[in-house]
Amino acid sequence: MNIAIIGSGGREHSLCHKIAQSSLVNQIFCIPGNAGTKSIAKNIDVDISNFPEIYKAVKKEKVDIVIVGPEQPLVDGVVDYLNKKNIKVFGPNKFASQLEGSKGFMKDLCKKYNIPTAKFAIFENFNEAVNFIDNNSIPIVVKADGLAAGKGVSICMSADEAKEKTREILEGKFSSSKKVVLEEFLEGEELSYFVIVDENSYNFFGSAQDHKRVGEGDTGPNTGGMGAYSPTKILTNELEEKIKKKIIEPTLGAMKDLGHPYKGFLYAGLMINKNEPYLIEYNIRMGDPECQVLMMRLKTDLVKIIDNATKNSLNNLKIEWDKNSCMTIVLCSKGYPGSYIKDIEIKNLTKSTSDKNNQIFHAGTYEKNNKVFSNGGRVLNITSLANNLLGARNKSLDNLEKINWTDGFFRKDIGWKAIKKDENNKW
């Protein structure tokens, strides 16, 4: 069959990489793709917000299944559009995509269905928000209601900072947000928990831990993700049962109640406090960079999984995972997540190790005259498998040294908390 993937980041490159291993696949298309996907897929230069052009492209190439990588086209209704054109597409519809597209929708759902989450309030009026801030404890979390490319969340350590971040959101810093969500700060350990969902059932689709902060030691502003590892030892059998019963299943039940059964990848961003899970946010797609580590660990044919999901037969499929540890470290353009320069050549890519245990997934890149150039804040994902987390990190760092891109930077401490626990045997 022919498969098309919508998107141009590291997540989409890793999906292409995994799909290319399937015996069920004839040809892979990536819309629009990047310099990395070009070697394993046919890139189609179409704007992912232009649904009619996407339709024309997949129709022309006789695509059997479309997989949507990023959140924005899902929130904008690409699944609804393509389904009406009789194109088989894997992902949630526009209504269900509100789980990520509106933090207010997600929080209200939690309240109605008793899903554990941080205490919160939603505001459109600045003065009302200020009053809430003045009457609640610090730190406080300030969130843009709509999509913000991973940059719409601030953990504020003073009331003045919270008020300033609130003002920025309500004055339109993020075009998708007309509201602000103010939320209690929860302490604990973060966990990314993934499931794949059809209209009848769901399957576990891996665990990971992302590192959002730009600086080492988890300092500085939030980013789209500086690195990730999988699996995480924090996910015990007992904790997983709580996540399923208290968070995943009530959510899927709620979407059915609302007349829009969820279908696609679902990513629960959780805070674990005293072995109890709290829902921080939902993502309606695979995480980035979490997808990269999960695709390296996935042993079952991804095309078979998604084909089963589109036929509502996931319950007939066992999904298997490599037990080794995997880590990805993100190589970013200097200045990210602030302003940065694009169009810088990346040399020495061919010197890096590429095999079943080591891959470089392109994120913000393009190719011109057989040369690779930067095209974004997050540029490359250096990803490695090993029998322990420290080994995986060392492999990734070795590959980073071989690339030696002086116009970029990266965190050297991805997985630092887990590695420290491993060393001290304190799990």
Quick recap of the structure?
The chain is an alpha+beta fold. Helices cover 30% and strands 28% of the residues.
How is this structure best described in words?
- Strands 10, 11, 14, 15, 16, 17, 18, 21 and 22 form a 9-stranded antiparallel beta sheet that branches.
- The protein has 13 helices and 22 strands.
- The chain has helices spanning 10-19, 51-60, 71-76, 78-84, 98-101, 103-112, 126-134, 159-170, 237-257, 290-297, 302-310, 389-403, 416-424, and strands at 2-7, 27-32, 42-43, 65-68, 89-90, 120-123, 140-144, 153-156, 180-184, 189-197, 202-210, 213-215, 219-222, 227-230, 264-273, 276-283, 325-333, 358-362, 365-368, 371-374, 378-386, 408-409.
- β15 (264-273) and β16 form a beta hairpin.
- With 427 residues, the protein is an alpha+beta fold.
- It is 30% helix and 28% strand.
- The protein folds into 4 domains: 2-91, Rossmann fold (3-Layer(aba) Sandwich); 119-184, Dna Ligase, domain 1, CATH 3.30.1490; 189-316, ATP-grasp fold, B domain (D-amino Acid Aminotransferase, Chain A, domain 1, 2-Layer Sandwich); 325-424, Alpha-Beta Complex (Glycinamide Ribonucleotide Synthetase, Chain A, domain 4), CATH 3.90.600.
- The chain starts with a strand and ends with a helix.
Strand content: 25-35%
Structural class: alpha+beta
Tell me the CATH superfamily of the largest domain: ATP-grasp fold, B domain
**CATH domain topology of the largest domain:** D-amino Acid Aminotransferase, Chain A, domain 1
Cα end-to-end separation: 44 Å
Number of helices: 13
Apparent shape: globular
Work out the number of β strands: 22
CATH class of the largest domain: Alpha Beta
Instruction: Please tell me the CATH architecture of the largest domain by its name.
Output: 2-Layer Sandwich
- Overall number of domains: 4
